[in-house]
Structures are given as structure tokens and as C-alpha cells.
Design brief:
globular, 8 strands, alpha+beta, four-stranded mixed beta sheet
Length: 386
């Protein structure tokens, strides 16, 4: 499924990451979930091989590439059955924001560790009463001398138990207008007043979800990332890579499920020929393959636009890619399970757990309905209903 438009370097990266993913595979993920552990071994090996930081600047230990390269890493690990969800968060969102807007000291302190996997950063934006409306974020930062005091709550924050810090989206008061404006803060997970509480999920994943409580967490002035007056720009600079990487996550998962179904359809014989010879089985699998390929093309377009500095163009393409990949993933997983029949629901074949996991790409980090809102407003120029 390697696209013909990819460079030789991208093909080589894809092949190398696929080999790493194959060494771990779905069994590794299943085992770590059962043991309640994070995928530390795979994360460490991916870091040592330079895959976690392919998008980060070379002068800070990264590979000097972009989101195009990082999306290949996540897609191929997913296609092998062992995706790393925190790739979406630590290098793609947090690493990108710090590389683009951080101070020299922030870059030196965080980027080398994010690149080699020895440090990990979570991302905190979603709140209990805000959801998709980031304008309703109530986590606030107020000045206390040269320090900041951060107070609020966040929910559905991935991998906090693995993280050294969380890049938290808060709001500060504009001294001129009194209105609240978004700002980004690096909050160490061992800071006084920082609390985390696991959220019980039906989703079987090695990376856990948490609710965060921030009770007057005192932060030094240098915890603020970028310009206090450019928080919205900086925020969306991280959200576009998040959407592109979510697409990669979905495409990888869909490819894994489809490959298992194709393998089964080739071998499973009920009447005179393998079931894959019947069009009722073959055609839906072919359609799933087409849908995943089309989603990947949009993901590649989004990554190209983002890496070339076209934030506006990337915004549209990233949303479309995330939407297309989420839909393609859900359909591929559903068809894979259906192809295997009863076997598709057994632990032996390991596809049933993907039914829940596939919905993540439809729901997070933004729902498909909000993406349709974005496209109808931004691309088609239709009026808003909210």
C-alpha cells in the first residue's frame, strides 16, 4: 500500500518502521494492556532508532523532517498492530509547538528528550464543560509577581502517568479589554497542586486517560510557551498536526484490520472455494482498501501543506484527512470483523477490541460533526448555526 507519490526516503522510512512494528506486533499491545502497563519498550526502541523525533529540528536531536515523516511512523506501527498513541501528543503537538514558538531554553530543555523518547509530554485542552468549544475553556492563569498561578480542570488527557509534563491550554486576562485569551503552559507533573485521576474506559489501550486538577499550580514565568498575545495561533499550530497524526493512527489501524481479514478470506473455505472468491466478501474488502488509500492521499496533502508553512491550507486538509481516515477506519474494522464472522469476536484473532478503538478516530480530537461544520463554514462559505 505504499503510495507511488512517496520519495525513496519516505519508502525507506516506511519499510524500517514496519520492521520495528513487526517485531512487536499486536501481541505486545495485548500483553501490555492486560498487564496495565504503558508500551515502554516499544517507545524506547522507537526513540533510540530516531523515529519519535523525525519531525523535530536536527539541532535539538531530531530528524529534521516534518509531520509527513512522523505520520509515516505512526501509520506503519499501527499497520503492524502496535500503534503508539502518544506519538500524536508528545512529538506532534507538544514538540511542534515548542520547536516553533518556544524559547531557546525551552527547546534545549525539552526537544532532545522528546526526540529520543527519554522524556514525554502530554497535552491538556479538553475540559468537562468546554468540549469542542475551546472558547469556553475555564482553566485560568493569573500573575503573582513574576510567577503564574494556574487553576482549572482537564479531562480525557492521554498518557499523563507516562509524562514528565503537560502542555496545558489555559486562559489569561487581557489587561486592555478584560477578555480571556488562550495561552500555553508547560506544567511538570510533579508540581504542587497538580492532581491526576484515571478515567475508567471501555477502550482497551495501553495509554490511559486522566482527569487533571490544577489547584493554584505555581509556575515560573518561563513556563509560558511563546507570546502571551499569540496563544490562538500557537494553539492551532499544534492542532493541525494532531489531526494529521490522528488520520495516520486511523489509517494504520484500518490497514491492520484489513490485512487480517484478507488473510482469513484467502484461507477460509466453507464451500468449494475460499470465501474471498465470493464478491459479497471480496468487494467490501476492496472498497475498504480504496477508502484507506484515498484517506492517506488527503493525509499526505495535509502534511505537505503543513510542513511547507501553509497553516490555512493545512487546516482544511488536516480536518478532511482526519474525517476521511476516521470513516475509512471504522468501515475497515467493521468489515474485517464481519468477514471473520464469529472468529472476528474472539480474543484469538484480536479484532473485536478494534471496534471500540476505531471510534476514537471519529470522536477525538474533534468529532466528525465539528469537522463538517468547519468544512461547511470555511470551505463552502455557508453561515454558522452556532
Amino acid at each position: 500500500m505504499t503510495a507511488v507519490i512517496e520519495s525513496e526516503e519516505h519508502k525507506a522510512l516506511r519499510s524500517a518502521v514496519a520492521a520495528l512494528g513487526k517485531r512487536y506486533g499486536r501481541d505486545y499491545v495485548t500483553r501490555t494492556v492486560a498487564e496495565g502497563k504503558p508500551p515502554a519498550e516499544l517507545w524506547s526502541d522507537a526513540g533510540k532508532l530516531g523515529y519519535l523525533g523525525v519531525n523535530l529540528p536536527e539541532e535539538y536531536g531530531g530528524g529534521g523532517g516534518g509531520i509527513a515523516e512522523l505520520s509515516i511512523v505512526l501509520e506503519e506501527l499501527g499497520a503492524a498492530g502496535s500503534p503508539l498513541l502518544m506519538l500524536v501528543v508528545s512529538p506532534a503537538i507538544c514538540g511542534t509547538v515548542i520547536a516553533r514558538f518556544g524559547t531557546e531554553e525551552q527547546k534545549r530543555r525539552w526537544l532532545p528528550g522528546l526526540a529520543d523518547g527519554t522524556r514525554l509530554m502530554a497535552f491538556g485542552i479538553t475540559e468537562p464543560d468546554a468540549g469542542s468549544n475551546s472558547h469556553r475553556i475555564t482553566t485560568t492563569a493569573r500573575r503573582d509577581g513574576t510567577d503564574w498561578l494556574l487553576t482549572g480542570r482537564k479531562v480525557f488527557i492521554s498518557g499523563v502517568d507516562m509524562a514528565d509534563a503537560v502542555l496545558v491550554v489555559g486562559r489569561t486576562e487581557d489587561a486592555r479589554t478584560g477578555t480571556l485569551k488562550p495561552c500555553l503552559f508547560i506544567v511538570p507533573t510533579d508540581a504542587e497542586g497538580f492532581g491526576r485521576h484515571p478515567i475508567a474506559m471501555e477502550l482497551n489501550a495501553a495509554e490511559k486517560q486522566f482527569e487533571l486538577t490544577l489547584d493554584d499550580v505555581r509556575l515560573p514565568a518561563e513556563a509560558l510557551v511563546g507570546d502571551e498575545d499569540a496563544g490562538l495561533l500557537q494553539l492551532f499550530a499544534g492542532l493541525n498536526p494532531e489531526r494529521i497524526m490522528t488520520a495516520a493512527f486511523a489509517i494504520g489501524m484500518g490497514r491492520y484490520a484489513l490485512a487480517r481479514a484478507v488473510e482469513y478470506a484467502r484461507e477460509r473455505t466453507v464451500w468449494k472455494a475460499p470465501i474471498g472468491a465470493h464478491q459479497a466478501i471480496a468487494h467490501p474488502l476492496a472498497q475498504a482498501h480504496i477508502d484507506l488509500e484515498l484517506a492517506r492521499l488527503m493525509m499526505q496533502k495535509a502534511a505537505l501543506l503543513y510542513d511547507s508553512g501553509d497553516d490555512i491550507g493545512a487546516g482544511e486538509a488536516a480536518n478532511m484527512a482526519k474525517y476521511a481516515a476516521g470513516e475509512a477506519c471504522v468501515r475497515a474494522v467493521d468489515q474485517a470483523v464481519h468477514t471473520l464472522g464469529g472468529n472476528g469476536l474472539t480474543r484469538e484473532f484480536g479484532l473485536a477490541s478494534l471496534i471500540t478503538a476505531a471510534r476514537v478516530a471519529r470522536i477525538a480530537p474533534v468529532s466528525r460533526e465539528m469537522i463538517l461544520n468547519y468544512v461547511s463554514h470555511q470551505s463552502l462559505g455557508l453561515p454558522k448555526s452556532y
